[in-house]
Amino acid sequence: MKELEERINKDGRVLGKDVLKVDSFLNHQIDPVLMDKMGNEFYQHFKYSGITKVLTVESSGIAPAVMTGLKFEVPVVFARKHKSITLKDDLYTSEVYSFTKKTANHISIAKKYLSADDKVLIIDDFLANGQAVNGLNDIIKDAGASLAGIGIVIEKSFQKGRQLIDKAGIPIYSLARIKAFDNGQVVFEPEND
Fold first, then answer.
1. Arithmetic mean of pLDDT, 13-35
2. Can you list the alpha helix ranges (DSSP code H) found in 22-129?
3. Comparing C-alpha atoms, which of 86, 98, 150 is closest to residue 120?
4. What is the torsional sign of CA 40, 42, 43, 45?
5. 5 three-class SS
6. What is the DSSP string of 116-182?
7. Residue 9 — φ and ψ, nearest 5°?
8. Is the dihedral of CA 39, 42, 45, 47 positive or negative?
9. Among residues of the chain, what percentage have pLDDT more than 70?
10. What's the pLDDT tens digit per position in 63-84?
């Protein structure tokens, strides 16, 4: 998605060798117009997949997931990272390691929001090592639902997440694929890859 790549170049900041900070439009301050365009991109790519639910992890995946759910006109369910007094029983759970925060989280979804009848589209803000996707896929399997595909806003293709998903044979569509960070600059994969 050319507009997203341009926005990453304009407002993104490379931190070290493997972190991209995009808090001015994606995961702290949110650009709703850009989110709407992302939701439409995911919809156009997966519109014939029979999606009944969009699934993500709180909190940075919620905005693009909601806009995608809006296009599909289906519910959006987000896995919670923190326990709540209102969310404690009848849960699907999985452990997910956060690369940027260097912590493990137990994510959970109430069983009443995911069933064997659901055909799920995972939407997430970043794909690096594939931990969030694996955790969500574990929950989908536990529910007996089926995973129709994965939509990623920003993929760091120099890390192992994409290879794991491709090896599993899961359809994936990333809006921006980063090949490398070179001297503080983002190098994108060619669009036809």
1. 92
2. 32-46, 62-72
3. 150
4. positive
5. helix
6. TT-EEEEEEEEESSSHHHHHHHHHHHHHT-EEEEEEEEEEETTSTHHHHHHHHT--EEEEEEEEEEE
7. -65, -40
8. negative
9. 94
10. 999 999 999 999 999 998 866 6
- Whether 99 shows a pLDDT value over 90: the answer reads no
Residue 156 CB partners (closer than 8 Å, separation 6+): 18, 20, 126, 127, 128, 178
Q: Look over the chain and give the mean of its residue pLDDT values, rounded to a whole number.
A: 92
Using CA atoms of 114, 94, 79, 174 in order, give the dihedral in degrees to the nearest 10: -100
> Quick one: tokens of 8?
């990453």
How far apart are the C-alpha atoms of 18 and 45, rounded to whole Å? 28
pLDDT at residue 193 in the model = 47
pTM for this structure?
0.92
Residues in the chain: 193
